[in-house]
Amino acid sequence: MEVWQSLLLKGNDSFNRLELPLAEEYYHQAIECLEQQWCADIEDSNLLMAWISAFHNLAVLYEQQGQPKIAFRYLQIPHQRMYELSQKSQYSDDLKFVALRTLKFTLMPLLAFSKKYPACDGCLSSLKKMEAAINANQPVMH
Q: How far apart are CA 89 and CA 98, in angstroms?
């Protein structure tokens, strides 16, 4: 088992036992570990998805603690990163394809969260525009 996997499991276990500060620490450590490995192999989609999941775990944790602004930020970080990856020409077409497909995965929690915790009109409008753009640009597999 990879170190990051162990850290995520420990974080989830701590979260389930309501040991939230400990869970938070494990999730942050997992993100750090994943970022190091992912930088070494940016094409690894398993590392990418684990990295996104760790951020989403932190968002749930902060929401549980009554900190929706921080939770929202932890949903925004991977979404913004996927947008950047999908737009930069320096990356391979395969990575840009994965990032584009993953944008939908990162956008849906942001939209759901903004329904529970009203976002500013500009933010909500921006999210809805991005949803329309993502839906229009999703690659079609034949």
A: 14
Rounded to a whole number, what is the largest CA-CA distance in the chain? 47
pLDDT digits (tens, 9 = 90+) for 47-68: 999 999 999 999 999 999 999 9
Helix (H, G, I), strand (E, B) or coil at 93: helix
In contact, 95 and 84? CB cutoff 8 Å: no
d(CA 138, CA 7): 33
pLDDT in tens, 105-135: 899 999 889 888 876 555 555 655 555 555 5
- Side-chain half-sphere exposure of 83, counting CA atoms within 13 A: 13
